[in-house]
Amino acid sequence: MSDTTEKQTQEAERTEFGLPLDAVDLLAAEIAEPAELALGFLRHGELCVIAGEREANAAGLVLGLGVARSCDGAAWLGIRPAPGPTLLVSTASPFRLKKRIQRLVGGLARAGAPGGGPARGRLHVLADRALRLDWPSGRRALAAALEQTGADLVLLDSAGRLCDEASGLLGTVDAAIARRRVAVVASCSVAAEWARRLRASADSLLRLEHHSGDTSLLSVDRTGPTPVEEIWLKRKDGWFRPVTAARLASEPRRRDPHPATPPAPSRG
User: Which mean pLDDT values do the consecutive 10-residue runs of the chain (268 residues) have?
Assistant: First the structure.
């Protein structure tokens, strides 16, 4: 390798990854805390993973964040998210995505939320059944979409469908976070082997567990004084809304048509 080529390579590496920083300089630097987007577990420059089995519908919880952020007066998990442009990345067909978003918007209207549907420029959709974020073409598509939309939040709709290998997906996600300071929220299976690395790399991990009927439990794992928090949720019109344990206890019990354990045999 010639001196010129080697110098160019070194310069490219510095541009991509930056230079080492002395710990003394790091401690002396004024570093602002990343802006919070929702509920203390979603910040710019971080990855949040929402994991759950199919019946829990973690993908629906992720989509709800995008719709709430794009509709005036809408709340996600009981709190209004910080406003800003959002990019939804999915392999679902435009027809199915439209139906899912329409259901959420209709639920807002029935709940009496002000305003209509998503405001223009707040929720963008990158949808293609062949899209794979661990492929070079997928990385280029994501980078181009972020450049075009200026989104500061990326939602990965069912991340397992957006990649062949978790390591490649993580590389794309980490590059977007490091270079554009976006926040990324991904839904995935709680048990799938491929998703283990994705969950382990998350700055915040939310586990969504379906209990019975329209009731779910969201467990939030994060750093801080309260590392694990549990939130009971009731689902209606596609929205997950927090409820207190006291309210759940006061509601009449309904027989689950698919109980987790069979009832004990009668002795009569």
Answer: 48 55 85 73 88 92 94 87 93 95 91 79 96 95 96 95 91 91 92 84 92 91 66 93 73 48 40
Alpha carbons 191 and 35: distance in angstroms, whole number: 31
Q: How far apart are alpha carbons 254 and 256 in whole angstroms? A: 6
d(CA 189, CA 208): 10
Cβ count within 10 A of residue 178: 13
Specify the residue for token string 């109980």.
Answer: 259
Q: What is the Cα–Cα distance from 41 to 47, expressed in whole angstroms?
A: 9
DSSP three-state, residue 243: strand
Q: Would you call 232 helix, strand, or coil by DSSP?
A: strand
The confidence score (pLDDT) of residue 261 equals 43
- The answer to whether residues 119 and 86 touch, using CB atoms and an 8 Å cutoff, is no
Q: Which amino acid is at 236?
A: K
Note the pLDDT of residue 155.
Answer: 97
- Indicate the length of the chain as a whole number: 268
The pTM assigned to this predicted structure is 0.81
Q: Among candidates 125, 123, 107, which has minimal Cα distance to 69?
A: 123
- Encode 230-250: b = buried (16+ Cβ within 10 Å), e = exposed: ebbbbbeebbbbeeeeeeeee
Phi, psi of 216 (to 5 degrees): -135, 160
User: What residue type is assigned to position 231 of the chain?
Assistant: I
What's the CATH number for 34-249?
3.40.50.300
Distance CA 204, CA 256 (A): 31
Domain ranges within the chain, ordered by starting residue:
34-249
